Amino acid sequence: MKWVLRSVQKLISCKQFYSAHARELLFLWILFLGQFLSACTTHSTIEQEDLSSASAIVEQMEADLSGLEVQMLYLKNHFDFLISHRDSILEIADKTKYKFRDGYSTNGPQDDLSLSSVVIFIDNFDSKSVMNQVYLSNGMDSVFRKVYKDSGIISQVYFNTSKQLSRVYPAYDASLLLDRKIDVTNYNFYYEGDLAHNPSKGMKWIPTIYVDPAGRGYILSLVQPIYDGEELFAVLGIDVTVNEISSRYLSPAEEELLITTNDGTVVGGKAEAMEALSLPPLRNHVYLETVRKDKFRVEALNLFKSKNREVREMAESILCKGEDKFIFHNEFSPQKIAALKIEKFDWYLLQIKGQSR
Predict the structure, then answer these.
(1) Are residues 110 and 220 in the same domain?
(2) How many angstroms from the chain centroid is the CA of residue 74?
């Protein structure tokens, strides 16, 4: 734009400035300059408006999930109360509330909706201490149900204890989905709350999605350790399914959107966005057989593993170098991608512009 201004200044200083030809030329220069400045302003406005929907999605997602932190604090305070009043609560506890068969509570999802699924792992079913944990934590059922019903986004609420007791609401077919011989303390939804992984003893989002061993598919978890003095008593958890995140935040948008972790793992995305980035469809994983593995991670759907070289370059540019946009050149690629950071989880919302040409 500087060369345009210099040309106008030179024309004005010319002795023949007041000739008809000069005045006409000046008019054309000013007209060109006005159109040029208008185009620049319009382009800038379009760029801002293009991300307004994506920005609103990020803001709403972080607000909704921050609300779960308030719910987790409510659960923690209730659990702390039960532990601090252990003796008096055990004296009046209803020890007939749950019946067990081979370590699994006999109620199912089709039964009393006020009940959780309770599982005693490994071979300590006859242990007095673990049964006291069952009786003590019966008081968590009502608050589990309240949090679950009030939220609308939660898939399940639960805790697991160091003595291998698990309580999950709402109830599910635990005996069909879980191997009772597993050590629950080896799972990230437990050990991410222990002192080694969480020395602050506060609530913590697990940024890596994983496959839920209770059969609810890909999961995002918020965990909170519960201590009895200096000893880790249990780890509370609130889960949100990836399917819920996609259907609630991505599906209603007109734009082609995709959410990825900072290591390139796809959390959720619209079908067109997945196709544009040469990724296979994102299918919700549900177990149809008993779970026996101790870790469940999602690795196949990763931007760094895309068949498209430019997509891999885009992942490097945005996730590793911190760029907020990427322009494609290959005819089999989309036109460009804009990225917004989801600070709470160190994730990114990617907005894809233009389908493969």
Answers:
(1) yes
(2) 21
Which H/E stretch holds residue 130? helix 128-137
The reported pTM is 0.79
Whether the bond between 170 and the residue before it is cis, its omega within 30 degrees of 0, is: yes
Each residue of 226-273: pLDDT tens digit? 999 999 999 999 999 988 998 999 999 999 999 999 999 888 888 888
- Classify residue 296: in a domain, yes or no: yes
In a domain, 14, yes or no: no
Q: Are residues 294 and 195 in the same domain?
A: no
Is the domain of 79 the same as that of 141? yes
Angle formed at CA 200 by CA 199 and CA 201, multiple of 5 degrees: 90
Residues 177 and 261 in one domain: no
178 token code pair: 């879980």
Whether the CA torsion 82, 84, 239, 130 is positive or negative: it is negative
Q: Please state, in angstroms and rounded to a whole number, the distance separating the CA atoms of residues 138 and 218.
A: 28
Give yes or no for a contact between 104 and 180, defined as CB atoms under 8 angstroms apart: yes
pLDDT digits (tens, 9 = 90+) for 57-106: 999 999 999 999 999 999 999 999 999 999 999 999 999 999 999 999 99
Place of tokens 């597993």: 182
Q: Does residue 263 sit in the same domain as residue 238?
A: no
Q: How far apart are CA 285 and CA 216, in angstroms?
A: 8
- Rounded-to-integer distance, Cα 339 and Cα 343, Å: 12
Q: What is the DSSP string of 136-201?
A: HHTTHHHHHHHHHHHHSS-SEEEEEETTSEEEEES---HHHHB-TTS-GGGSHHHHTTSTTT-TT-
- Rounded to an integer, what is the distance from CA 268 to the centroid of its chain? 9
Considering the chain, what is the average pLDDT of its residues? Answer: 83
Task: Write the burial class of residue 221 (CB in 10 Å: 0-12 exposed, 13-18 middle, 19+ buried).
Answer: buried
Amino acid letter, residue 246: S
Q: What's the domain count of the chain?
A: 2
Domain termination residue (choose one: 216, 243, 270): 243
Q: Which domain holds residue 258?
A: 253-353
Below-70 pLDDT ranges, the chain: 1-49, 123-126, 214-215, 282-300, 355-357
Three-state secondary structure call for residue 314: helix
Q: Please, is 125 exposed, middle or buried when counting C-beta atoms within 10 Å of its C-beta (0-12, 13-18, 19+)?
A: middle
